[in-house]
Design a protein that fits this description.
Helix content: 25-40%
CATH superfamily of the largest domain: Metalloproteases ("zincins"), catalytic domain
Structural class: alpha+beta
Number of domains: 2
Number of helices: 5
Distance between the termini: 48 Å
Radius of gyration: 22 Å
Strand content: 15-25%
Shape: elongated
Amino acid sequence: MFLTTFMPDISEKQQKIRDLFIELKQAYQTDYPDLASYQLKFSQTKTVLGSCHYKKRLISISLSILKQNPVELQLDTLKHEFAHALAFMHGERGHGRVWKAWAVKLGATPKSRSHKPVRTEYKYQLIRKQGERIEPLARKYHRKVNLKNRYLGGDKSSLNQLYLISVEELEAYQAGHLHLAQLNFLQ
């Protein structure tokens, strides 16, 4: 017998985020009428879970991260960002004492950064190419970076041996579907 875990589709996850946003606004806008003008936006950021823009009155939640992770992670992020909006109405920016009190009251993890593992999709893998041998390194990137005249910290012999390769190509190469000459090395 196979056990499967139910993973809500992205539209169900987005609806849960929207519902909580509306619930939080309704719960606090009587005491904090400025909350009525706050909007919720789903962004395409890949490394930032969420943000609160005070002047724009906008709370953003990463759709990319929502797709790859349990909805609970981004529900916590929404509470975190909502705590920023409420703390700002008390004159505080950042992760100070007022923000922390609101975060706790809203049920958010009162930390400036998530300490839970966050899955995200990367486009490129950093590799070291030495002749006909490639060595995947730990670092991954969402976008291209310039690696010319770069080397690994403390290892000057790696000068100009660092390249990016698409994650898909690397996986195909490692599975034996592509040969070294077929890979696109980006420097």
